[in-house]
Structures are given as structure tokens and as C-alpha cells.
Specification:
The chain is an all-alpha fold. It folds into two domains: 288 residues, Growth Hormone, Chain: A; 58 residues. Helices cover 78% and strands 0% of the residues. It is built from 16 helices and no strands. α8 packs parallel to α11, α10 packs parallel to α12 and α13 packs antiparallel against α14.
Length: 414
């Protein structure tokens, strides 16, 4: 297992750097007004890849063995490296020439200390949000200790960037630009909203309709399709008009409608038409991903494109974990309390009620074993929990819309 974890750290580091690097290359090779269109094509390719990766990996694991899910990636990566070497033009540094110093001098310019403090600080803050309520209770000393350590490490990161780093890994002066802050906020909130929704939707159909994992997961396809269409339309809009603020505001409003409909209409008996309510949520996120990238690039000095884009992509995993943790915390707080109240109305209390609540929250297939009367109240309690879970996504979409409204609007030149 440790080999798998270390390998995932290495591949995750490369994957994260690849997304930022691809975005920077696009901004260097294309006019800013066309960047959204090219970024939308990149998002479509990435979406298709993510959609195919799971089924293909599962097929390989079921047939020739899971190891080939890893071995099979090697020739794809090698092909990509050769293609990049042959096709991409040579890009120079912002000074206009490649530094000729020694490798030691080049390495000395890298802000390793800032990177360590930033990475470990974010990890220390996000890890308790990921494990609290699942692996350990929220009141556990581990949660508080990790939060304190994270705050100390981020403070050290700020001091390092302000006092010691010659070339900071993330220049803090960027945060004095309100459009940069709003761009990060929009990206983080939209990501948190969609990830929270994608956490809840499969579970909702497993609970209310007893769908299989495959069928429940398939209910997420409208959101994935919405991501793709939203990104493509936004790219076309910005390329045609030169304006990016309108798509950002519209994306927040559309996402708000999605989560509001799910709160109001998903009461346990959801037909195929109402299951499409998640489409506008994915559509809004797809619009935001494209428009906010262009908005960020338009708000900064070209010399800061790489670090600003890296910061933007950093908000995606942060938003994902915050969205997942928030929705999970709300679900675990509301559902057991609602179930306990319903069981009391059936005359079930004490140890028996505690056993039912423990079983119902631990595994969905308990619904197949429980008496019909108990199963009905369990489903009702879950639905109530989902309503509050979607409320977290709704709040995130409101924050994203507010940030979009506060951004400065400008027309991009050709």
C-alpha cells in the first residue's frame, strides 16, 4: 500500500504541474481573447480522458490484472513526451533568453522552502476536514492539532515569501489585486459546489431507488456533459465578444438554479426528467472554469501568468475537499438526528434506535434488511440530509455569483 501511496504522490505532482503548464502554454501561444476557446478544447479532452479512464481501468483490472492499469499508462506518456518535443515551439524565459548559469545556480533560484511550507500547510489544514467525521470524530485532538500545525506552517510560508525568498513560489502581492482574489474564490466555490453535488447524487439514487453503483454513477453524466457544453459555449462567447464577466455571473445563477431545484424537488421519487436537474450545475461550472481563467490572465502582469495560473489550479483540490467535507459534515449531522426523531415517533428508542442509526449511516444495503416501516423513515432521513447537503452547494454558488458581480469588467483586444 505504501508503494501505491508514494506512486500516487509522484503522479499527482506531475499531473498538477501538467495542468498548469498546459494552461500557461496556451496563454503564450494564443491571443488572450482566443484563450478561452483553446482552454475549452483542453477541458473537453480532459473530460473525455477522465470518463474513459475509469471504465478502461476497471476492464483491465477484471481481465488481465490491475497492474496493467499502471503499466498501460507508460507508452501513452512516452508518446505524449515525444509529441511535445516534436511539435511545441521552444519557449524562452520572460527575460527573453535562457539563463546560462550552472544547474546549481538555477536550482538555488527555486523557492523550495516556500513550497514545503505551502504544501505541508495546506495538507495539514485539509487532512482533518477529510478524515473528521469518518476516520476520527470532529472532537478528536488529532483534528485540532492538525489545524494548529497547518496555521503555523502557512504563517511560516507567508514570512518566507515576504522576507527570504528571492523568487517566491507564489508572490503575495498578487493577492492585493481584488480580481485575482475573486478569481480564486469563484474557482474554489464552483468546484466545491459541484464536488458536493457529485458526492450526494449517486448516494441519493442508491438510497431512494436502490440503484446499483453503476446506474447511480451514470446519473452524473448530465453534469459531465454540462461541463463540456458550458466550456465550449463560453470559449465561443469570449472569442466573439471579448467580455468574460457576463459568463461568470450567468454561471453562478445557473448553478444556483440547479441546487435550488434539487432542494425543492428531489424528495425521494425522482423521475428521469428531474434527474437532469444536475445538468445546469455542470454547465455553470464548465462556464466558470473557462471564463475565470481568462479573467485572471486579464487582471495580472504577463510576467505573473505562470504563478497566477498555478494558484488558480491549486484552488481546485482545495475547493474539492472543502465541498466534500462540508456536504459530508452536514449529512452526518442532519441525517442521524432526523432518523432518531422519526424512530421515536415509531416508538423505537434507546439501544435499539442507536443500532438502527449506526447501521443506516454505515451502509446503504441496510435498507434491504430493515423492516419496511423502518426503511421508509431511513430513506426520509437521508432525503432530509441531502437537502441540507445541497444547501452547502447552493451557498457556494451564491458566493461565486457575488464574487463575479464584484469583478471589474473589461473588453479583451484581439
Amino acid at each position: 500500500m505504501w508503494q501505491v501511496i508514494v506512486g500516487r504522490v509522484i503522479s499527482g505532482s506531475g499531473g498538477a504541474g501538467l495542468m498548469s503548464l498546459a494552461a500557461v502554454i496556451i496563454t503564450d501561444l494564443a491571443p488572450l481573447r482566443d484563450v478561452a476557446s483553446w482552454q475549452s478544447y483542453l477541458n473537453v479532452v480532459a473530460t473525455v480522458g477522465r470518463s474513459l479512464g475509469g471504465p478502461v481501468g476497471g476492464f483491465l483490472a477484471d481481465t488481465i490484472g490491475w497492474r496493467w492499469s499502471f503499466f498501460g499508462q507508460a507508452p501513452i506518456f512516452i508518446f505524449a513526451m515525444i509529441l511535445c518535443a516534436l511539435v511545441l515551439p521552444s519557449l524562452t524565459t520572460r527575460q527573453g533568453q535562457i539563463d546560462a548559469g550552472s544547474m546549481k545556480a538555477k536550482l538555488a533560484r527555486i523557492d523550495f522552502l516556500g513550497a514545503i511550507f505551502l504544501g505541508s500547510g495546506i495538507l495539514s489544514l485539509l487532512l482533518p476536514l477529510r478524515i473528521a467525521g469518518q476516520e476520527v470524530p470532529w472532537t478528536s485532538p488529532i483534528v485540532l492539532s492538525l489545524l494548529i500545525i497547518g496555521a503555523v506552517l502557512l504563517t511560516l510560508f507567508i514570512v518566507t515569501e515576504m522576507r527570504w525568498a528571492k523568487e517566491p513560489i507564489f508572490p503575495l502581492r498578487l493577492l492585493r489585486n481584488r480580481d485575482v482574489v475573486f478569481s480564486y474564490l469563484i474557482m474554489g466555490c464552483q468546484t466545491a459546489a459541484q464536488v458536493g453535488m457529485m458526492f450526494a447524487v449517486p448516494l441519493y439514487f442508491q438510497v431512494t431507488q436502490r440503484s446499483s453503483s453503476t446506474v447511480a454513477g451514470a446519473h452524473l453524466m448530465p453534469a459531465v456533459i454540462g461541463n463540456t457544453i458550458g466550456g465550449l459555449l463560453t470559449g465561443a462567447w469570449i472569442r466573439r465578444t471579448g467580455y468574460f464577466k457576463a459568463p461568470l455571473v450567468f454561471a453562478g445563477v445557473v448553478s444556483f438554479v440547479c441546487y435550488a431545484l434539487m432542494i425543492l424537488r428531489w424528495k425521494g421519487e425522482t423521475d428521469w426528467a428531474e434527474s437532469l436537474y444536475i445538468f445546469p450545475g455542470g454547465f455553470g461550472t464548465g462556464m466558470s472554469l473557462n471564463a475565470v481563467f481568462v479573467a485572471l490572465q486579464a487582471a495580472i502582469n504577463p510576467m505573473d501568468r505562470a504563478v497566477a495560473a498555478s494558484g488558480l489550479y491549486l484552488t481546485i483540490p482545495i475547493g474539492s475537499i472543502l465541498g466534500m467535507a462540508g456536504c459530508n459534515a452536514v449529512m452526518q449531522g442532519i441525517m442521524p438526528a432526523e432518523l432518531a426523531s422519526s424512530l421515536r415517533s415509531l416508538g423505537i428508542e434507546g439501544i435499539e434506535a442507536e443500532k438502527i442509526i449506526k447501521q443506516a449511516t454505515a451502509r446503504v444495503d441496510y435498507l434491504d434488511e430493515a423492516p419496511k416501516q423502518v426503511a421508509r423513515v431511513v430513506v426520509r432521513a437521508y432525503v432530509r440530509g441531502f437537502e441540507f447537503s445541497h444547501g452547502v452547494s447552493l451557498l457556494c454558488s451564491v458566493m461565486a455569483t457575488t464574487a463575479a458581480l464584484l469583478m471589474r469588467n473589461k473588453k479583451l483586444g484581439r
